[in-house]
Write a structure and sequence with these properties.
It is a single chain. By secondary structure, the chain is of the alpha/beta class. The protein has a single domain (68-309), classed as 3-Layer(aba) Sandwich (Rossmann fold), CATH 3.40.50.300. The chain contains 9 helices and 11 strands. It has helices at residues 82-95, 112-116, 138-144, 166-179, 197-200, 212-227, 252-259, 271-278, 288-312; strands at residues 2-3, 9-12, 35-38, 70-75, 100-104, 146-148, 151-154, 182-186, 203-209, 234-238, 263-267. Strand 1 (2-3) and strand 2 (9-12) form a beta hairpin. The longest helix has 25 residues, at 288-312. Residues 1-26 are annotated as: Disordered. Keywords: ATP-binding, Nucleotide-binding. Pfam families: ParA.
Length: 316
């Protein structure tokens, strides 16, 4: 085997076989033509890429019913502003005195630290989360996360790692639920909900764009959540961005008739906030047009988690 001077290209040569004159060579020793093939360069392994087991730990297979403070945020399609809404909700709960963690489980979009403008802050990312036994100690994980406006944030960094295994996501969510009053999970379009037991059984909030096509997608998304056995979600309406004046918008009453459910909102788009996010400045304030809907969602969350905290507090 010899290599020519062209990088990553090798040339395999077969030396001619010798035999006495008049004696034919065996079929398996007939000289073959030279074969040329391409050998791709070895892919360097990033430090975060580790060898993982394909089998889920036994402890991750059961639903942990002791944590009733997990809130899963999803939407029927991308680009609706779900991550911004999740962050504003976590910020609002923190301002109310609740310890809150925000988990980026949207492994299609991700980059929540970029959206919040804290990508340069030190702290743990999902590529560094390891749960080989399906368990993570909550206080230790909480301490290692980056902090934005008092909110503990676990972002996903798609450029540094492949998608985490589902039991690693579940272990991280359980750990943060142990260490915080509320855990807000930005699950994007819900790709993980079916496989992560604790997300499937958590409180659900669905963002629905208040347009004809947006409501159709929200209805389909709600049917998918129902098929997975998720509890009835709370729905918040979001006005479409970039719509022509006086066109494309569906009112909340009409949306409630179509979805046969109560629709909170609407959440109104704000050009200043959109510009800040696009420029990497993060969310510097909650726009006035969104505060009412965000506060109603925060009220619903506090009413949901209150029984758990009341049960754990001593009765003096």
């Amino acid at each position: 085997m010899t290599s020519n001077t062209t990088p990553h290209v090798a040339r395999r040569m077969s030396a001619p076989a010798l035999a006495p004159p008049g004696v034919p060579l065996p079929a398996d020793e007939v000289p073959s033509p030279s074969l040329r093939y391409y050998t791709p360069p070895p892919k360097p392994l990033a430090s975060c890429e580790r060898k993982r087991s394909k089998d889920a730990p036994a402890g991750a297979l059961a639903v942990d019913t002791t944590f009733q403070n997990i809130v899963t945020m999803t939407a029927g399609h991308s680009g609706i502003g779900l991550s911004v809404m999740s962050a504003m909700l976590a910020w609002t709960l923190t301002e109310r005195g609740r310890s809150c963690a925000l988990v980026d489980a949207d492994f299609v979009g991700g980059c929540l630290d970029l959206l919040l403008g804290v990508e340069r802050e030190s702290g743990l990312r999902f590529s560094q989360v390891e749960a080989p036994l399906g368990y993570i100690e909550g206080t230790a994980l909480n301490h290692d996360l980056l902090v934005w406006e008092g909110v503990r944030v676990l972002p996903y960094d798609p450029w540094n790692a492949r998608q985490p295994d589902w039991w690693e996501v579940q272990a991280a969510v359980r750990a943060l639920a142990q260490a915080n009053d509320v855990v807000i999970v930005d699950a994007g379009q819900g790709g993980l909900v079916e496989t992560v037991n604790d997300l499937r059984s958590s409180m659900h909030i669905v963002a629905a764009e208040l347009s004809v096509i947006g409501l159709a997608r929200a209805k389909t998304h709600r049917m998918r959540l129902d098929s997975w056995g998720c509890p009835t979600p709370r729905i918040v309406g979001v006005l479409p961005r970039g719509k022509p004046r006086g066109r494309g918008e569906v009112g909340v009453p009409e949306a409630e008739d179509y979805l046969t459910a109560t629709v909170l909102g609407p959440v109104r788009p704000f050009a200043g906030l959109c510009g800040d996010v696009l420029e990497g400045l993060g969310i510097r304030s909650i726009p006035k047009g969104s505060r009412k809907a965000i506060n109603l969602l925060a009220d619903a969350i506090e009413q949901t988690i209150r029984p758990m905290h009341a049960a754990t507090e001593p009765d003096w």
